[in-house]
Amino acid sequence: VQLVESGGGLVQTGGSLRLSCAASGRTLSSYDMGWFRQAPGKEREFVAAIRWSGGSTRYADSVKGRFTISRDNAQSTVILQMSSLKPEDTAVYYCAARSLLSSSYAYWGQGTQVTVSS
Fold first, then answer.
1. % pLDDT > 90, the chain
2. What angle do CA 62, 54, 76 make, to 5 degrees?
3. How confident is the prediction for the chain on average, in pLDDT?
4. What are phi and psi of 30, to 5 degrees?
5. CA distance 53 to 59
6. pLDDT tens for each residue of 37-93
């Protein structure tokens, strides 16, 4: 599966952004999906994940209550709606896919930059 993120940009503290991940190559319902981010000088970290059916989600504590992950398998799209953004949310955000029989994310997009100004 190929993944392409979009929707990043520059936003002020307290603002919102909507990231999209478009999948192609295989049906999206074959994968659990996740969003990760990597800030300059830091390791990549988990942000949010959603099961293949959309019935279960989980979030990093740092974004819980501010970010929402959703998916539309018919449109082969995964969305990360981000609100109440903080400067510490500044990072490159990556979409990732995990096969239902796998324990790791094997497929990654190229990333989209999110910058939150103070």
1. 92
2. 105
3. 96
4. -85, 0
5. 17
6. 999 999 999 999 999 998 899 999 999 999 999 999 999 999 999 999 999 999 999
Dig out the tokens for 26 from the structure.
Answer: 């295989």
| Residues in Cβ contact with 25 at an 8 Å cutoff, skipping those fewer than 6 apart | 1, 2
Give the residue-averaged pLDDT of 90-103: 95
Q: What is the b/e burial string over 20-38, where b = at least 16 CB atoms within 10 angstroms of the residue's CB? A: bbbbeeeebeebbbbbbbe
| Rounded CA separation 52/36 (Å) | 17
Kindly report the three-state secondary structure assignment for every residue of the chain. CEEEEECCEEEECCCCEEEEEEEECCCHHHEEEEEEEECCCCCCEEEEEECCCCCCEEECCCCCCCEEEEEECCCCEEEEEECCCCHHHCEEEEEEEEECCCCCCCEECCCEEEEEEC
Residue 26: pLDDT over 90: no
Gyration radius from the chain CA atoms: 13
